[in-house]
Write a structure and sequence with these properties.
disordered C terminus; alpha+beta; 24% helix; 32% strand; 7 helices
C-alpha cells in the first residue's frame, strides 16, 4: 500500500503527469529555486543542504490507492481511502496575547491540520515532519525550539488531542531559511505509539527543557493492508533525558543508533511477525556540521550495514549540543530511488537513478 522513494529534484520537476499519479506527497530538500513546482502535489520545498557532490533530493511517498488532490486554506494534500499526506508552509507573523511569531505560526499550522483531518475523517496522524530556521536561536527571551513546542502543544490541546501516551512520531530540524514547514501522514487505521526503555518519554521531559514538553512519541506503529509499519521519530544521543557524548560525533551516532535499536526491539516485541531490525529500516540522517559527514557515514555503515537505504542531509538539530539526528521507517516498500541510496554507494551514484 505504501512505498518510500527518493528522486533527484530535477527529475521530479520533469516527470510526466502519469508518473506522479500514485504520489501521496513528499519533501524536497532543496532551496525553493531548485525545487519542482507541482501545484497538485503536496510537496514541501525545505532549504536543507545535501552533502557535497549530491544533488538536491526529494523524499516521495507513493500509495497504491486511487488518490485525489485537495486544498484546505494553506494546506495542500492528497488522499486515498485510507491515507492522507499533506503539507503547509506558514510565515511567522506577530502573535496575539503575548505569543511569539513562531509559537503563533506553529499553533495555527497544527490547528489547521487537525481541522482538516477532523473534516476528512482521519483517525490518527502517523508522522509529522517539522522544519524552521534558527531552531537553536534565542528570540523573544527563549529558544525557538521551545517556542515551537508551546505552539504545538497548544494546538493539540485545543483540538482535544492527547499530549501524552498515544501521540504521533515526529522530527523538528533547523532549515537554512524560509517559513515554518510542516508535513504529515495520516491514516484511518489506529496508531500505536512506541516508547524507548532507554529514554524518558519526550512528553515527560522535566521543566529544564522548556515550559512545555515536546509532543511526540519515539515511534508510531500502524497496520495497513495487513502490513505492520514503523515510523521512528528523529532520534539522537539522549539517554534518560540528557544529552550524552557532547562534542563527539562518532559516539553520538552510535548512541542514536542504540536508541533506534531499542525502539525497533520494542516494536518487534509488540508485533513478533514483523521485522524491524536495524538492517530492515530506511533512514534519514541529519548532520549538523559538514566536516562530520565522513565520520557519521563510517559509523553508520559499520553499525547498521552497507545495504540499507540512508539519505544524509545537513541540518541543525533541536538541541544545540546534538551533532546528529536520525529518523527511520520500516515495513513499507522501497522504490528504486530509495534502494539506490545504499550506504555502500557514493552519493553521486545514488542520485543518478
Amino acid at each position: 500500500m505504501l512505498q518510500l522513494d527518493y528522486l533527484p529534484a530535477s527529475r521530479l520537476a520533469h516527470a510526466r503527469p502519469g508518473e506522479l499519479a500514485d504520489v501521496l506527497g513528499g519533501i524536497c530538500f532543496a532551496p525553493r529555486a531548485a525545487a519542482p513546482v507541482l501545484p497538485d502535489l503536496p510537496l514541501l520545498a525545505v532549504d536543507i543542504a545535501s552533502p557535497p557532490g549530491q544533488a538536491p533530493v526529494c523524499e516521495i511517498w507513493r500509495c497504491s490507492e486511487p488518490l485525489e488532490p485537495g486544498r484546505a486554506g494553506a494546506i495542500r494534500y492528497r488522499e486515498g481511502a485510507n491515507l492522507l499526506f499533506g503539507c503547509v508552509e506558514l510565515d511567522e507573523a506577530a502573535g496575539d496575547d503575548g505569543k511569539t511569531p513562531l509559537q503563533a505560526a506553529t499553533e495555527a499550522a497544527y490547528g489547521s491540520v487537525f481541522a482538516l483531518l477532523e473534516a476528512r475523517g482521519y483517525r490518527d496522524v502517523l508522522r509529522f515532519w517539522n522544519y524552521f530556521p534558527a531552531i537553536n536561536a534565542e528570540h523573544h527571551a527563549s529558544e525557538r525550539y521551545r517556542q515551537f513546542n508551546v505552539g504545538r502543544q497548544d494546538a493539540f490541546l485545543a483540538h482535544g488531542h492527547a499530549v501524552i501516551g498515544t501521540v504521533p512520531a515526529a522530527c523538528a530540524l533547523g532549515s537554512a531559511g524560509g517559513p515554518l514547514h510542516l508535513a504529515f501522514l495520516a491514516a484511518r487505521a489506529p496508531l500505536a505509539s512506541v516508547e524507548n526503555p532507554r529514554q524518558v518519554s519526550a512528553y515527560h521531559y522535566p521543566d529544564a527543557y522548556g515550559p512545555r514538553s515536546p509532543t511526540f512519541s519515539r515511534a508510531g506503529l500502524v497496520r495497513l493492508d495487513g502490513q505492520d509499519m514503523l515510523f521512528v521519530s528523529g532520534t539522537a544521543s539522549i539517554v534518560g533525558h540528557e544529552t550524552l557524548h557532547r562534542g563527539d560525533v562518532a559516539a553520538q551516532t552510535r548512541e542514536s543508533l542504540c536508541n533506534i535499536a531499542a525502539v525497533a526491539a520494542e516494536a518487534a516485541r509488540r508485533t513478533p511477525s514483523a521485522r524491524f531490525g536495524l538492517d530492515a529500516l530506511a533512514y534519514k540522517v541529519y548532520v549538523r556540521r559538514v566536516e562530520d559527514l565522513a565520520t557519521v557515514r563510517d559509523v553508520f555503515a559499520r553499525t547498521v550495514g552497507a545495504d540499507v537505504t540512508a539519505v544524509f542531509l545537513l541540518a541543525d538539530v533541536c538541541r544545540a549540543d546534538l551533532l546528529v539526528e536520525i529518523e527511520a521507517s520500516g515495513g513499507h516498500a522501497l522504490g528504486p530511488g530509495a534502494q539506490a541510496f545504499l550506504t555502500r554507494r557514493p552519493p553521486c551514484a545514488a542520485v543518478s537513478v
